[in-house]
Amino acid sequence: MSDIQIEAAQPQHKEGGKLTYAAIDDMAEIILGTYKDKAIEANLQQLWENRANRFSHDISYVAIQNNEVLGAITCGPLTEIEERMTPTVFQIITMNKLKPFRSIFKYPKKFYSLVTMDEGEEGDYHISMLATMPNARGKGVAQKLLAFAENKAKEAGYNKISLTVVKDNDKALKLYKKQGFEIIGEINKKPFYLYQMRKNVI
């Protein structure tokens, strides 16, 4: 694990879309208005390459070993991440024209549940995405990315860091608990069922 470096993400990192999709899973279908895996990954890659949206490289960091991206994390002050939602929607509309609107009209309750989701509290430093590539498993990449995010939170003067995790993602839940995160709440908005987790870092 010692030769794995964490660096600021760049638009040319072609793994960004794949990693984001792995992290947000079926939420992507509602946001983007498509259920086709290739289209979802391509759209998320475009958002990764763009700036000023909540899936962008400009608030993300990557774990690199031998010039290969093994994982990524998107993190920052929760208020700043939330402020990126409107630009994110506009960028998606620019890319996909009417598709997002069709998704909204077809699944209004799902879309409402998604956009009104309470991910954390004001004053949190928040991790909105964490994922690793299949070939990175067992290398401690996720732990290294989490530790990096905690240090970023401390450097920015935050004393708590938060994230959400799908309730049935036992592997991720075990990892976060091992890293010191505690369940402090739940999100139960059909079809999204998640735990809110937080860790004090100062």
Structure description:
Keywords: Acyltransferase, Transferase. GO terms for molecular function: acyltransferase activity, transferring groups other than amino-acyl groups. This is N-acetyltransferase. The chain has helices at about 15-25, 25-30, 35-50, 80-85, 85-95, 100-105, 110-115, 140-155, 170-180, and strands at about 5-10, 60-65, 70-75, 125-130, 160-165, 180-190, 190-200. The two termini are about 25 Å apart. The chain has a 7-stranded mixed beta sheet with strand order 1-2-3-4-5-7-6, with helices on both faces. The protein has one domain: Gcn5-related N-acetyltransferase (GNAT) (Aminopeptidase). The model has no long low-confidence stretch (mean pLDDT about 95). The protein is globular, with a radius of gyration of 16 Å. α6 (about 100-105) packs across α7 (about 110-115). The longest helix has 15 residues, at about 140-155. It has about 200 residues and is an alpha+beta fold.
